[in-house]
Design goal:
130 residues, 3-stranded parallel β-sheet, alpha/beta, Ribosomal Protein L15, Chain: K, domain 2, 22% helix, rod-shaped, 2 domains
Length: 130
């Protein structure tokens, strides 16, 4: 049995619903995020710039933070000491920033070339331990 409304709409092609309306989610171009790589791509470019792809990077958790000290901080932190074991003091690396005025022997796991040169210019010594 054909409804009266259907009879009235015969020959109108869309039955008053517009193109594709009345067929699922047809009029809105699909449900949800359907078509973001196809017919809704301009919408993505304009309003959802960060929707696709990956951003940044992940650091692995096994990275150990290196605690470093500068040559210029040695006299301030360890005054009147002729031999300093930086490993026992909690430092892992000696860096070359700053100046030193006294002769000192430093024991450290790692040191930069500039730091070693500055210590040796004042008559001191840098001992690299493992």
């Amino acid at each position: 049995m054909v409804r009266d409304k259907t009879k009235k709409r015969r020959g109108s092609r869309t039955h008053g619903r517009g193109k594709k309306a009345g067929r699922g989610a047809g009029l809105r171009g699909g449900r949800g995020n359907a078509g973001l790589h196809k017919h809704k791509y301009m919408h993505v470019l304009k309003y959802m710039r960060d929707h696709f792809g990956r951003r940044g990077f992940k650091r692995s958790f096994d990275k150990k933070e290196v605690k470093a000290i500068n040559v210029g901080d040695i006299e301030r932190l360890f005054p009147d000491r002729k031999e300093i074991n930086l490993k026992e003091e909690g430092f892992d690396k000696l860096l070359g920033k700053g100046e030193i005025k006294t002769k000192v022997k430093i024991i450290v796991p790692k040191a930069t070339d500039r730091a070693i040169r500055k210590i040796e210019e004042k008559g001191g010594e840098v001992v690299i331990i493992e």
